[in-house]
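For this section, I looked closely at a protein sequence along with its fold in token form, which I now present.
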Amino acid sequence: MFNRANLLVVLIAIAGGLLGLFVGSYFNRPHVAGMPAGAGVLAPGDALADLQLPATDGTPHRLGDWHGKLVLVNFWATWCGPCREEMPLLDAASKHYANHGFEVVGVAIDDPPAIADFLKAQPVGYPILIGDDDTLKAAGDDAGVLPYSLLIGPDGRMITLRAGSFTSADSLAAWIEPHLRNPG
């Protein structure tokens, strides 16, 4: 027969179990370093929307144009210091891994004249498309964090993401190489 003490112990155990479930589900949510709390992000395995964006010359492109390749989609802006600093690393990686089915696609979240002026001074060999805040939201970056990079598999699904810049060629290589078809 239950007395008050036994009932209290059972209620505390149930409350503890429910608290444990809540805490566990909170800590198992996707989290990205540098991403503000509450920001929506894509999860690994999610398909990136096949956005149509203009290139710097006005030619429309879809992100699906690179289907079949490992694609690093990098969102940046001319006014973003860390974005500008990582662009030479992205350019070098684009060239270095080109024969391994890898491509970098930049998406500038900026005004076309500012983008054109910047690229004249600091050209890159990878395609640059032009987006806006809605483009960032469609890519899962509700908070507008820049730079913001997505690694998209050949099947068009997101493998991983990074909110913040790459600060070295080694950190970028460590992010890319495990996903290359023929890393050798």
Remarks:
- The CA atoms of residues 15 and 21 lie 10 Å apart.
- The beta strands are 52-54, 60-62, 70-76, 102-109, 128-131, 148-152, 158-163.
- The radius of gyration is 21 Å.
